[in-house]
Design a protein that fits this description.
CATH architecture of the largest domain in chain A: 3-Layer(aba) Sandwich
Strand order of the largest sheet of chain A: 7-6-8-9-10-14-15
Distance between the termini of chain C: 22 Å
Radius of gyration of chain A: 21 Å
Radius of gyration of chain C: 21 Å
Number of domains of chain C: 1
Largest sheet of chain C: 2 strands, antiparallel
Number of strands of chain C: 2
Chains: A alpha/beta (about 425), B mainly alpha (about 300), C mainly alpha (about 375)
Oligomer: heterotrimer
Largest sheet of chain A: 7 strands, mixed
Structural class of chain A: alpha/beta
CATH class of the largest domain in chain A: Alpha Beta
Number of helices of chain A: 14
Structural class of chain C: mainly alpha
Shape of chain C: globular
Order of helices and strands of chain C: HHHHHHHEEHHHHHHHH
Order of helices and strands of chain A: HHEHEHEHEEHEHEHEHEHHEHHHEEEEE
Largest interface: A-B, 49 and 55 residues
Number of strands of chain A: 15
Number of helices of chain C: 15
Strand content of chain A: 15-25%
Strand content of chain C: under 5%
Helix content of chain A: 40-55%
CATH superfamily of the largest domain in chain A: Response regulator
Strand order of the largest sheet of chain C: 1-2
CATH topology of the largest domain in chain A: Rossmann fold
Distance between the termini of chain A: 22 Å
Chain lengths: ~425, ~300, ~375
């Protein structure tokens, strides 16, 4: 760990400290399993006119199930529905079943804004699980802030944001990038990096943070190239040739969507086999979901930096993977974002029960400090800044489409959406 | 930017970059040939062209799965079977679409644009319902995914060679059909003067249907080949549509040679610019140059002189 | 030609305008809650584009698949003004350079680019909303029409423009907000545009502007220019041989359509609260043509209904069947093209108008819309 140079990204308190501090809270959270609605009269738990009745509470699910983003967002919808059904099987929240209204963002940002307004204004949902791309989140953000809605956003993203109306269950950029770069430099002796991405804000901001870290916070490392291609681009032979010319130690790839498939297939076909690790490929945009499209044999040997891999071996995750496959089919794979989406309903449940109310203001006030010991990724806790403390892991892609975890940070990494020195 | 490299390195890179341009050229040719037949000869704007390609890709996916399960020993050659099946599947769908929709719209070419756009929405949703919203992974036989090391520095991707051979083969096949077969003669006659063609006893309705089906079938084969280099998902077809139309229009409608020449010039321009500029800017500049030339020479590179 | 088609308004036109006015200003506001009314306000912004397309395509035979470009340019001009107003040094104190739009700060831009400066002025921005799309259309129009590019070629070249502008906006995110677009717009000269009351006001402003555009369109159609356009659409060479400067008429009508689209874009930005490149690209541009086709490509009133109907169908289908609605939408397009090539206006003219006329008029007046025939 290059702890000496990183301001505060990794210097979080240890898990032990959390556990001690949170023990009482955890106990109170999971005790009221069989809560009965009569103990929580609707008039008291819902003072702002949300869609809460004596036996049900309605939330919204807002993802793209059509259009180009449906490829990525389908997993999130499935995970959220799984979490909701599990919560209902346990007796719901404050004795009330969760019902959901699903809306389609159609991969179109204005549509996201329209549907968000509909969910908040017409349906009065108590919270929304939704959005995937930064653009869709930016589009709905003013709507949530204006109508005081509460959004659980599952995707790893570029940071630079901290809304009182959003809980970010994915990683902000530094949580995903820095530990991975440190690892690849320390363990693999990497000195030179070629940054590559799809052309929009997340890859650009992530690469900016990566570049600052490579140039200013590590020693003897440098960036030898940085390149962006339009979303949906399918021809990468030119950039592959440029990579050959520059001979980087690491290709740092943040290519998304269908371009991913094209990039890895063409990389392999051009004789750059990630498994040979010269150069090695490090990505923050390929989860198990994307590997299905790429084909495990084409990406085998690449490294991905995430907080969750399906192959994690802990009890929580084994149970989660089993339940997910039971509900959605044996051939399902689960990626980082899918897991983060699964956290949303659970974190909301914990916050509502801590607050003893569905009111957004009270849920918001109760949220910081909420911890979840049953998270598939292990253990998470909501930070004051509405992001999650979570570990960073590096996985090596296998031919069967799974990742083998080769590294994880010893401690939880503190979320830092406005990292000093990286702007 | 070149001062750090030796001449051999530079030579190798330029050789490979030239080859990358040739691969892109082959990809464009594959994309555009089907459309060149349909749009160039029949004047039909088929916005669902990308979806016909993706149908070919899905057929390839199904074939690969079937081979892996039933005849794993023959997996190495499934791709050839898949391409034939892709041609048949897309061709049959084309045949049906022509019968149900297109033939009613020959007098209204811009309306075919709207109707086929509707068709593309429907096909996307059908793919999504049948195969799921996620991309499917098509396993390519190992021998197709490697590369041939020519020298220490130059490596030639085998799938690139494959795409090039395929593009050449299909281009020759289409050329043969167009200029050496009875059908081709009829198609050309109809595109020059439909009424006269009808009058001399050509079955224009059937020729149209066959033309459309063959165009769609070629798109299916292209889609099948693209599983090697790109993604297979419900909306992947939309990625190709603008490039494809530009290639055909830039080449000049009605001219197969023009389509090939235009695919060559656009691909080389893009590939050269991609090497010196960032990917996004290269794309914008390529499109701008193409549009600029089209403004000066609206009929495209090659054009047939036709009586209006 | 009968005398009635020379007057600015025939009886049918008056009825049509009156009904539309009643729908927009009375029926919708009474029938809908504030959320739905705002949605319909959004749909009506597309009607600006559809009306422009009726002039270009239906009357002039120029099919542009790049109207999203003009819609987007207008919208972006408005959004730039609103963004500058929202980016006060106080609101953006958290940034490393306070006082510039947030997305610039994220992209390490430390000063406002010079071409953003004029958008501090509301007057300039309002002029730009119309003039930027018009100038752009003028350049394209001169280049294309002077060289007699038309029909399918024109459609595909405009489509390429939509692709170019989208890639450019996304690629230059430091200056344009990239894929996210320009978001989080708050006030117009201090007036909060996010409140329900403001949205209602904007709805009416939108309606009035739409009627202004409709009146201009009606005037153009009934003027000599309008008749020349139709003549050009049907027999361009004969018009040219008659001594008319065909290209200039086409350029004019194309610019007019672009101006309408720009106004629509600006109203979109005001009512929705942001502008994004997803409204510029090929898909929205084709959709806008479809609004026009559904409404009836020859009828400006029909275009408005077309925009309303398609968007309403989209919204309600996707609310009821989030995973299958595209089937319905695709089917609608095919049905319109195959069975009702003249769209809603055609249905009205062929089935409803004759009965209405029989009901009201003592003698049959010829339909104001010349017996529509499918345009090329």
């Amino acid at each position: 760990m290059t702890d000496k140079k990183i301001p505060n990204a990794l210097a979080g308190p240890s898990r032990r400290a959390f556990m001690a501090g949170g023990a009482a809270l955890t106990a109170s959270l999971f005790a009221p399993k069989g809560l009965r609605a009569q103990e929580f009269p609707t008039a008291e738990v819902n003072t702002t006119g949300l869609a809460v009745t004596d036996d049900a509470v309605t939330i919204g699910i807002l993802h793209s199930v059509t259009g180009t983003m449906a490829i990525s967002e389908t997993g999130s919808v499935q995970a959220e529905k799984l979490a909701i059904s599990q919560i209902n099987a346990q007796g719901g929240i404050l004795g009330r079943k969760i019902e959901y209204i699903q809306e389609d963002g159609a991969s179109d940002w204005p549509t996201f804004a329209e549907k968000a307004r509909k969910l908040l204004v017409n349906d009065k949902v108590a919270s929304v699980m939704g959005c995937w791309t930064s653009a869709s989140r930016k589009a709905v953000l003013p709507v949530f802030e204006q109508h005081n809605g509460f959004l659980y956003y599952p995707t790893f993203y570029e940071g630079l944001e901290q809304s009182p109306n959003v809980i970010y269950t994915g990683q902000e950029a530094t949580q995903q990038i820095i530990a991975g770069l440190d690892w690849v430099t320390r363990e693999k002796g990497a000195k030179t990096f070629y940054l590559l991405g799809s052309d929009y804000i997340w890859p650009r901001t992530s690469n900016k943070i990566a570049r600052k870290h490579i140039e200013n916070f590590m020693e003897g490392t440098s960036v030898v190239g940085e390149e962006y291609y339009p979303l949906g681009h399918t021809q990468f032979n030119s950039v592959i040739n440029k990579i050959r010319l520059r001979k980087p130690d690491v290709i740092y790839a943040i290519v998304v969507g269908g371009s991913n498939v094209a990039f890895y297939k063409q990389l392999k076909a051009a004789g750059i086999d990630p498994a040979e690790e010269s150069p090695m490929v490090l990505t923050i945009s390929v989860t198990e979901d994307e590997i299905r499209g790429i084909g495990g044999e084409n990406i085998e040997g690449s490294y991905a930096c995430m907080k969750y891999f399906q192959s994690l071996e802990n009890e929580n995750n084994l149970a989660f993977v089993k339940a997910f496959k039971e509900m959605w089919g044996e051939d399902m794979v689960i990626g980082d974002v899918t897991q983060a989406a699964y956290l949303g309903p659970w974190l909301w449940k914990a916050a509502v029960e801590k607050a003893g109310s569905f009111d957004v203001d009270k849920v918001r006030a109760a949220s910081p400090g909420i911890e979840m010991t049953t998270a598939p990724e292990g253990y998470v806790k909501i930070h004051e800044n509405h992001h999650l403390w979570s570990k960073t892991r590096v996985g090596r892609a296998q031919a069967d489409g799974q990742y083998e975890v080769v590294f994880e940070t010893a401690d939880l990494v503190e979320p830092d959406p406005f990292p000093e020195g990286y702007q | 930017m070149f001062s750090d490299y030796s001449m051999t390195e530079l030579g190798a890179i330029f050789a490979m970059q030239g080859f990358a341009g040739l691969i892109l050229f082959s990809v464009f040719v594959l994309m555009a040939l089907g459309l060149a037949i349909i749009f160039g000869q029949m004047g039909v704007i088929n916005m669902a062209h990308g979806e016909f390609m993706i149908l070919g890709a899905y057929v390839t996916y199904l074939t690969s799965t079937a081979f892996a399960v039933y005849v794993p020993g023959l997996f190495g050659i499934y791709f050839f079977v898949a391409m034939i099946l892709a041609f048949i599947a897309s061709g049959l769908l084309g045949l049906f679409v022509e019968w149900a929709m297109i033939r009613h719209l020959y007098k209204r070419p811009l309306d075919t644009l709207l109707a086929t756009w509707g068709l593309s929405l429907i096909l996307q949703q059908v793919y999504r319902s049948v195969f799921g919203a996620r991309e499917v992974g098509v396993s390519i036989p190992d021998w197709m995914m490697g590369s041939l090391p020519l020298t220490d520095l130059i490596e030639i991707p085998i799938n690139g060679i494959f795409v090039m051979v395929l593009a050449t083969g299909i281009a020759l096949g289409v050329y043969y059909l167009m200029f050496r077969s009875a059908w081709g003669l009829q198609v050309r006659a109809i595109s020059q003067n439909r009424v006269m063609a009808d009058a001399v006893g050509i079955n224009t309705a059937w020729t149209d249907r066959l033309t459309f089906a063959i165009g769609c079938g070629v798109a299916g084969v292209a889609g099948s080949a693209f599983t090697m280099i790109g993604s297979t998902g419900p909306t992947a077809g939309q990625l190709y549509i603008v490039d494809t139309f530009l290639v055909v229009v830039f080449g000049g409608t009605g001219s197969l040679l023009g389509t090939i020449a235009s695919a060559f010039s656009i691909s080389q321009a893009q590939s050269i610019m991609e090497f010196f500029l960032s990917g996004s800017m290269a794309k914008v500049l390529t499109l701008l140059v193409v549009v600029g030339i089209l403004m000066i020479r609206p009929q495209g590179l090659f054009s047939l002189k036709l009586r209006k | 030609m009968s005398a009635s088609s020379h007057r600015l308004f025939s009886r049918q036109d008056i009825i049509g305008f009156a009904i539309l006015a009643a729908v927009i200003f009375i029926v919708l506001p009474l029938a809908l809650d504030s959320f739905r009314l705002n949605l319909f306000g959004k749909y009506l912004t597309y009607a600006f584009v559809a009306v422009g397309l009726v002039l270009c395509w239906g009357a002039g035979g120029i099919l542009s698949l790049g109207q999203g470009v003009f819609f987007g340019l207008g919208g972006y001009c408005m959004a730039m003004f609103l963004k500058l107003e929202a980016s006060t040094p106080e609101n953006t104190a958290i940034q490393s350079t306070p006082g510039i739009p947030d997305f610039m700060d994220w992209n390490q831009i430390t000063a406002l680019p010079w071409w953003w400066e004029p958008f501090n002025s509301l007057l300039f921005s309002l002029i730009a909303v119309v003039m930027v799309p018009v100038m752009f259309a003028f350049i394209i129009g001169v280049a294309m029409f002077r060289r007699r590019v038309g029909g399918v070629y024109f459609a595909i070249i405009t489509q390429a423009f939509a692709a170019i502008l989208t890639i450019l906006i996304i690629g230059q995110q430091g200056y344009t907000g990239g894929v996210n677009g320009i978001t989080d717009l708050r006030t117009l000269q201090g007036w909060d545009i996010r409140t329900d009351a403001a949205k209602e006001t904007l709805y009416y402003v939108n309606g009035v502007l739409l009627f202004a555009c409709l009146l201009i369109a009606q005037f153009v159609r009934k003027s000599k220019l309008g008749r020349l356009l139709i003549a050009m659409r049907d027999q361009e060479d004969r018009v040219r041989f008659s001594g008319y400067d065909v290209a200039s008429f086409k350029i004019f009508i194309f610019c007019l359509g672009a101006g309408f689209a720009g106004i629509g874009g600006a109203m979109f930005t005001l009512q929705v609260g942001f502008m994004s490149p997803t409204l510029v690209g090929i898909v929205p541009s084709i959709e806008m043509v479809i609004f026009c086709a559904v409404g009836g490509r020859l009828s400006i009133i029909g275009a408005v209904y077309g925009a309303l109907l398609v968007n309403w169908a989209k919204t309600s289908l996707s609310e009821s069947f989030p995973e299958l609605w595209l089937l319905g939408l695709g089917g609608l397009f095919i049905a319109v093209v195959m069975a009702f090539p003249n769209g809603l206006a055609g249905i009205y003219a062929e089935h409803i108008a004759p009965r209405l006329a029989a009901l009201f008029a003592k003698r049959q007046t010829p339909a104001a819309v010349p017996k529509p025939k499918p345009a090329e």
